[in-house]
Amino acid sequence: MFEGWPLLSLLVWLPIAGGVAVLAAGNGSAERARWTALAVAVGTLALAAALWVGFEAGVAGMQFEERVAWIRAFDIHYHLGVDGISMPLVVLTAFSTLLVVVAAWEVVRYKPAQYLAAFLIMEGIMIGVFSALDAILFYVFFEAMLIPMFLIIGIWGGPNRIYATLKFFLYTFLGSVMMLVALIYLRTQAGSFGIQDFYSLGLPVGIQTLVFLAFLAAFAVKVPMFPVHTWLPDAHVEAPTGGSVILAAITLKIGGYGFLRFSLPIAPEASLALDWLLIGLSLIAVVYVGLVAMVQTDLKKLIAYSSIAHMGFVTLGFFLIFRIVAAGGGRDGALLALEGGMVQMISHGFVSAAMFLCVGVLYDRMHTRRIADYGGVANRMPVFAGFFVLFAMANAGLPGTSGFVGEFMVILASFQAGFWYAAIAGLTLILGAAYSLWMIKRVVYGEVQNDEVAALEDVNRRELALLVVLTVVILYFGIHPAPLIDVMAPSLDALFGIVMSTL
Amino acid sequence: MKSVYLLTVLAPLIGAAIAGLAGHRIGRRAAATVTVGAVALAAGLSLYVLYQHVWGGAPVFNETLYRWASVGGLHLEVGFLVDRLTALMMVVVTSVSLAVHVYTIGYMHDDAGYQRFFSFINLFTFSMLMLVMANNFLQLFFGWEAVGLVSYLLIGFWYRKESAIFANLKAFLVNRVGDFGFLLGIAAVLMHYGSLDYAEVFAAAGDAPDLTMNLFGTEALVATVAALLLFIGAMGKSAQVPLHVWLPDSMEGPTPISALIHAATMVTAGIFLVARMSPVFELSETALSVVLVLGAITALFMGLVGLVQTDIKRVIAYSTLSQLGYMFVALGASAYAAGVFHLMTHAFFKALLFLGAGAVIVALHHEQDMRRMGNLRRYLPITHITMLLGTLALVGTPFFSGYYSKDVIIEAVHYADRTGAGFAYLAVLLGVFITALYSFRLYFLVFWGEERLDPHAKAHIEHLPRYVLPVMEWPLIALAVPSVIIGYFTIEPMLFGGFFGNAIQVLPANDVLATKGESFHGPFAFGLHAAVNPAFWLAVAGAVTAWYLYVRRPDLLPGINQRFAPVIAVLQRKYGFDDLYNSGFAGGGRLLGRGLWRVGDQGIIDGVLVNGTARTVGRVAAVIRGFQSGYLFHYAFVMIIGLLVLLTVFVGTWRGWF
Predict the structure, then answer these.
(1) What are the angstrom distances between the C-alpha of B402 and each of B213, B395, B432?
(2) Cβ of A378 and B159 within 8 Å?
(3) Numbers of helices and strands, H then E, in chain A
(4) For residue B107, what pLDDT is reported?
(5) Residue ranges of the domains in chain A?
(6) Residues 169..188 of B with a Cβ closer than 8 Å to A: which?
(7) Shortest CA distance to A145 belongs to which of A160, A157, A128?
(8) A230·B606 Cβ contact <8 A
(9) Once rounded to an integer, what is the mean pLDDT over residues A132-138?
(10) Does the model's pTM come out above 0.80?
């Protein structure tokens, strides 16, 4: 039914226009703003669903392409399109934004229209990032994304929000400036700003290394990778619940996406030459950050650190492929790693969103994020406790939940690169359970610790709906990940071909 | 048959969903009915499946249910493998589960979490069935972790109790250490045998028995590496030294699950795993020796700890550890069938002992200390008799089920020609004496001697609601029957009759059971053989010692305790494993995490790099501030110049001017 529609443009501009509409509608009436925002978010998700349905799973190349000249003088095009790598991320974005709109419903009292508008505009921009096929268009979206998030944390954030926003902004901005230089250089070599024209340029290794490092500066910060990860816990702590959900579920994925879309295919030889660095930093993320996560005293910091550790599996999977191939693991082994990393990105979107929503539910009632202020929540909120335990288990990679799939695939693949990679990565089984379940023990279980906990009320219908939806998704992709993997497999296979062909 | 298998698995899952999600709406009675009904259905179907496989000529079933994921040419699937080994496990799991479900009606009768409990034990039954029915490593790992999840939820069922939520975290984490090895083992299997499907893996392993891989700079046999890594998983789940520490603490959970999960079924998953993997383990003498020695260590030394426990459930828990050690000894001696045979008999008599202990605990209103029991046979005659039967089976009384299964293990090790077999033989033989001693110590302390009840417990036992005991006693009676007789009737087909067919594969050179079979002349003769068997006399000695010390001359005990004080102290510290793990691993991990956070993240990265840079920028900015005049046209002018410079550079690079 969407045959011939510019579906991607709609996905980008409907939420942006909708955001403006919410601003207009919300002038004076919060209620009207909420319903408008909900309608826009639902509409966007419906379009995203149409995208999923209309997407041909067996095709490796770009689909739903749109291309018109934008700035003729510099040969910049408004060029959109999705493949199996970006399409699931677009859908994830639309899904997460709807969650955020519902989660904010009666919780956000201060300037609700502006809050919701910021998220809708953010949604359009993020979908733009994932579907842009022109480097400058990508860059514009990539930078534009900072503004709504800056506002979200800066206006609706916690007491230390100024420090957090500055740190967040400077980190990501410094990284992306480097990327801009690289993009302009690539334009001089490829003769166009088309991202796919940058592939297979056959650049000398020295140049590739510079390009790779420039991209690394942009994407490593976003993921975030050790040691440029410390902005994330600070940003999460100060961000409102919705900000944390989008930050964890979507913006981190842009780093992982960038490695796949830019670093690996544009600079394969540099990726090969520097894979030790990326693998090393990824393994540090799993172990070091896992240990740091365990001792956090702030719920959001704990989940933020656990996000970093989980994203370590993404970058680990992406950059292990050279060693897997070298060790004789072949194409199947490399695909296991790439697909594992991608699945981990999608799953982390669900699980981290669920975890941050749970913290939001608690925070709305108790106005504290300190673990020590809780204890015995299960006594007062048994339904909530059930969901929280389930999500914590998904966070710890329990089979049957989506959290298991990516980690499982990456660990199996890393064994093919060498025993030690798998052994170090496998420590997540222990560390992930330790930080997730120790937190559960202190927050959920035990006797009621204080009067505030004693006064807690269980989740309302709106919250329950959010938790149920996330549970369904997390369990579905844990029990049956094939649909997700089948969608991304041809594109990752093609990517692997591009990377290997130039080596 | 496919629909039968599916229904067997799904019935308890559906039961769990109903009781868990709608438990409060449908009420306690309905929740219990649904879940007990679901397990009864699963048990009935499992019996039918076993019947079909043993007498009905049903073929081995190995089919895919659905495709979980595909990666290139690798297909990861969910499917069932049902042969006689699986069918037997299905019967053991569902029948013990059914007994425990019925028992729970009485045990949990006044608990607020009644429906939740039934939901969890139904979910457990589902998970365990998925584990034993898997035809591939992926699903095996799913079942493996799912039973771990339910175990976690049930140990912490009384989540207000600090000791319970400590124990469940500990259980999960220790199991995760095992799963860490297990997952690496799966990865090794995938890499070198190219599949996760059992049949394909076993075929590939058989085709390349001498395949090696590079590990730590040396060439190691793939079979050894894979088997040892998988065995680490088995050590976690089946609580073998040094990963045994979680099982005694798991006794913090309600007693029905101690019987079901932590004695009869889940903890035997490791035994099942090794038996299932026999085609791989057979290829590695090294791996089998490790299994043999660790099993023997567990069998002997954990039994010793059982001697000094005063909590009735903990005695049985240490007994379970020790008996699991016996099973691993059998596996390590290549007598896989004997290991599974002991698994089966043990499931019945150990579940019986736990449920009996639970009946005692409920009757005394949650009193678990044996020092405040005594002479209870007066109040609990049926519990007393059934527990006596269970004890007799456990210690290996001739013609009882435990006699057959344990004696075969001892003889199998005796025949085994493998590194560590000599030590293992001594350990399991000595273990027989220890087993009899701690078992009868428990029996006499609880049911004989003088009554040592505190007034509250005494009042409770005298005014027990009328329905509570019968609903708990029926399962005891039902379990007592197989505890006594099942060994007699099944030893011949299971061990010497080729019962398991191709499910268990033993190299001819390793086949100690075949050697033993040459001197086997029927179960009756085997029973009479006890008279010339050192194991039997050791058991008698243990029982008599217990009787003498705890019934006849309890006045001697203080003197003995004093004389053996250092030994007893070591046993009470449980050899220091807990202390080491708590301060070493748990404490060390927290310390390390805190150190990395404060020094690495906050000190170096944020303190020096980030904020240091920020300060430098601040200083530079102070200089630049001088350029700020406040006049708008100055700014505009500077911006235009800057833009022109940028454009020149940009266009210049593009056109190749520079």
Answers:
(1) 42, 7, 11
(2) yes
(3) 26, 2
(4) 87
(5) 295-503
(6) 169, 172-173, 176-177, 179-180, 183-184, 186-188
(7) A128
(8) yes
(9) 94
(10) yes
